[in-house]
């Protein structure tokens, strides 16, 4: 396996963990309920008695949501030490005494013999930021137990993904002042394009399928998400077939959009047959 720093060295990535640590200070019961509702929509049921892997746990919100849905065990992994610390702090505060663990690890160094397999492997908006999306997908899929589910989201391919790749690479290394200026320009242009809808969109962001997230933290994540890859739903299906996983459901928009304001994540649920 390559020891490329783009894959294994967290310092070469955007500081996702610092962003999620800031977001976690805003987490309240309403956002937890939204996150649980979003997870239930993908899982299709409660998680009672099931082992759940949160691969790229970020703020820890969705590990907490899995516990709220009755998961028997939650294992949360992230390459970013700030995300690991934030997730641990959130679960200690909101899920004391429940069966969870948090570990700092790259997806490329996951030890399947140590962790075992999981009834649900969940990775929302993560694997396209690893530097080798297809290898990360393969490793994550290998962690799904027979009869289990692989639930993930990935950036949809757009015609301007090449430009966003350049922007994200710059933004990830830019000073906080330069990042703030870039966000200001982005937000002004987005508001101009949305006109009267912008304020309502921001006010209701995170509800009704928004997973309990925060608009301004997501903008920072969108602009800084480096490494960056994207994919079409057709490519996902083809690759999952090679991994012998079967399609359960998906929430994907047709590809080919311009992507002027960036790409959105399509959501996928695949299952591993029992035999």
Helices and strands, in order, run as HHHEHEHEHEHEHHHHHEE
- Total helices: the number is 12
- The Cα radius of gyration reads 18 Å
Report how far the terminal alpha carbons are from each other.
Answer: 30 Å
Instruction: Tally the beta strands.
Output: 7
Poorly predicted runs are: none
Walk across the major sheet and give the strand order. Answer: 3-2-1-4-5-7-6
Strand content: 15-25%
Class by helix and strand content? alpha/beta
What is the CATH superfamily?
Vaccinia Virus protein VP39
Helix content: 40-55%
Please tell me the total number of domains: 1
Average pLDDT metric: 92
What's the CATH class, please? Alpha Beta
Largest sheet: 7 strands, mixed
**CATH topology annotation:** Rossmann fold
Question: If classified by CATH, what would the architecture be?
Answer: 3-Layer(aba) Sandwich
General form: globular
Describe the structure.
- The chain has 275 residues and is an alpha/beta fold.
- The chain has a single domain, classed as 3-Layer(aba) Sandwich (Rossmann fold), CATH 3.40.50.150.
- It is 44% helix and 17% strand.
- The protein is built from 12 helices and 7 strands.
- It has helices spanning 5-8, 16-24, 29-43, 61-68, 81-94, 112-115, 133-142, 161-173, 176-194, 198-203, 215-224, 233-242, and strands at residues 51-55, 73-78, 100-104, 118-124, 144-155, 246-251, 265-271.
- It has a 7-stranded mixed beta sheet with strand order 3-2-1-4-5-7-6, with helices on both faces.
- β4 (118-124), α7 (133-142) and β5 form a beta-alpha-beta unit.
- α2 (16-24) packs parallel to α5 (81-94).
């Amino acid at each position: 396996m390559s020891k490329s720093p783009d894959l294994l060295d967290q310092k070469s990535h955007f500081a996702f963990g610092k962003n999620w640590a800031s977001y976690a200070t805003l987490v309240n019961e309403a956002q937890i309920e939204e996150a649980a509702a979003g997870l239930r929509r993908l899982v299709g049921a409660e998680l009672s008695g099931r082992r759940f892997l949160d691969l790229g746990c970020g703020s820890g919100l969705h590990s907490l949501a899995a516990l709220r849905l009755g998961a028997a065990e939650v294992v949360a992994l992230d390459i970013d030490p700030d995300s690991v610390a934030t997730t641990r702090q959130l679960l200690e505060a909101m899920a004391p005494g429940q069966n969870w663990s948090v570990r700092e690890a790259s997806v490329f160094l996951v030890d399947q013999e140590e962790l075992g397999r999981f009834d649900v492997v969940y990775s929302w908006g993560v694997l396209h930021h690893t530097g080798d999306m297809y290898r990360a997908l393969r490793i994550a899929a290998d962690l799904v137990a027979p009869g289990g589910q692989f639930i993930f989201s990935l950036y949809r391919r757009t015609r301007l993904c090449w430009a966003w790749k350049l922007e994200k690479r710059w933004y990830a290394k830019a000073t906080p002042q330069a990042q703030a200026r870039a966000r200001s320009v982005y937000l002004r242009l987005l508001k101009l394009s949305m006109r009267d809808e912008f304020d309502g969109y921001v006010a209701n962001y995170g509800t009704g399928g928004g997973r309990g997230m925060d608009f301004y933290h997501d903008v920072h994540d969108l602009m800084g998400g480096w490494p960056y890859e994207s994919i079409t739903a057709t490519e996902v299906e083809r690759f999952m077939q090679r991994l012998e996983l079967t399609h359960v459901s998906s929430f994907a928009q047709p590809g080919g959009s311009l992507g002027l304001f960036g790409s959105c994540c399509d959501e996928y649920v695949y299952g591993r047959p029992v035999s």
